[in-house]
Structure formats: structure tokens, C-alpha cells
Amino acid sequence: xxxxxAFLIGALFLTQSVNDEKKAERIxxxxxxxxxxxxxxxxxxxxxxxxxxxxxxxxxxxSVL
Length: 65
What we know:
The protein has about 60 residues and is mainly alpha-helical. The chain is about 85% helix and about 0% strand. The longest helix is centred in the first third of the chain and has 40 residues, at about 1-40.
């Protein structure tokens, strides 16, 4: 029983570190995508609109990342 508990706790810590690494990679990808969109592609009126800000907040939310 102690071995099983130790295994589960170890697996939990390993899984969390992998998830943190993936989250950091996704944030870096989003940063690049939004920078490109804001500097080269996006319509300036839309970039100042509430809908764009909402989209950006949604994409950076923990549920999406």
C-alpha cells in the first residue's frame, strides 16, 4: 500500500512538471502568433475592439492552455 501511494504521489509531481512545460510552450507560441497578428495582419480597428481583447483573454486562459 505504501508503495502504491508513493508511486501515485511521484506520478502526480511528474505529470505537473510536464504540464507546466507544455503550458510555457503554448504561451510562447501564442505570444508569437499575437505579435504577428498585431504587427502585420490585423485590422487596427479590430485590434482595439473588445471582441479581440476577449479572444486574447480566452486563448491565454488556463482552460484553453
